[in-house]
TrEMBL record:
This is tRNA N6-adenosine threonylcarbamoyltransferase. It holds the Pfam family TsaD. Keywords: Acyltransferase, Cytoplasm, Iron, Metal-binding, Transferase, tRNA processing. Residues 24-311 form the Gcp-like domain. The gene is tsaD. Fe cation binds at residues 111, 115, 304. NCBIfam families: gcp_kae1 (TIGR00329), T6A_TsaD_YgjD (TIGR03723). Its main location: cytoplasm. Substrate binds at residues 134-138, 167, 180, 276. It comes from Thiohalocapsa halophila. Its EC number is 2.3.1.234. InterPro entries: ATPase_NBD (IPR043129), Gcp-like_dom (IPR000905), KAE1/TsaD (IPR017861), Peptidase_M22_CS (IPR017860), TsaD (IPR022450). It is an enzyme of class 2 (transferase).
Amino acid sequence: MRVLGIETSCDETGVAVFDGAAGLLAHTVHSQVDLHAAYGGVVPELASRDHIRRLTPLIRLVMAEAGTTAADIDGVAYTAGPGLVGALLVGAGLGRSLAWGWGVPAIGVHHMEGHLLAPLLEEPAPAFPFVALLVSGGHTQLVEVAAAGRYRLLGESVDDAAGEAFDKTAKILDLPYPGGPALAKLAEQGEPGRYVFPRPMTDRPGLDFSFSGLKTFALNTVREELAHRSDTEQARADIARAFEDAVVETLVIKCRRAVEAAGVDRLVLAGGVSANRRLRERVDAMMAQRSGRAFYPRLALCTDNGAMIAFAGHQRLAAGQSEALAFTAMPRWPL
Ligand code: KG4
Ligand code: ZN
């Protein structure tokens, strides 16, 4: 079965063709980073308009790269939510229409299920069951995965997502959008231990997270320290390092608890923040200590992309699921 996947939930236009026998045939992502940079964040209206401009040519390009014509496509998968509703409607509208025109089934995929299953596109793929840490700009969730489609939420952020905390703290440090990667880069120059940020909600049992306090802590530290340190560049790097260490250690503590509670030795990391190098190193070390293993997708499949949607859609279509001609986009949609 060969599936066209379309992702337009936020500021990346992603398209891919996945084949059940041959694997990922082609995928491309167009990032709107430059479009939104001047505004310091994603402007929903501009995002929708750009998806409209890019999507059709991108589909043609990816299908050509995959050596695929419409006649070879057995189904169309698109991100149906959660995300920006106008952006979602672009992918949903075009995806559903193409499927209708081609006479094949369509399926609306949950964006986070896409992220969650992305590591299965890699070799070696993690076997079920596993625990997944989903860390993106909109979500921080620990999920027990018994099989594709069988998910149990173990814990999640009660306020800001980890990626959101990275982005907001990056803004406080005057870093350009998108803030997460920029903050991680600045943190490389930081002196570890110069500042110590709290590890929120690690002093009590449970698997929930809270990251909104860290940006307030960062704001206060910036105000106090930048006023009386002469080496302000180094001070900014030290603060970035302290923030990153706090987020990473908090995530690792909860991941350890989650794999212990679930009794599994496989941990999957997915979502934009799983591109963070220090997080990967610390998670690897923690899982190695437990004689287990951590899995994550290649960097291009950590952030938003069409490959994960094509793959997740393929799993569902191959299991016989599809949807009626009427389609919806769901800005909010629990996993
Ligand atoms: O999954 P994603 O591309 O989009 C959402 O679904 O949200 O994740 C984007 C998030 C942003 O908050 C971005 O700052 C963060 O992932 N991110 C990072 C890194 N790369 C991306 N955060 C920390 N370190 C990174 N290297
Ligand atoms: Zn995402």
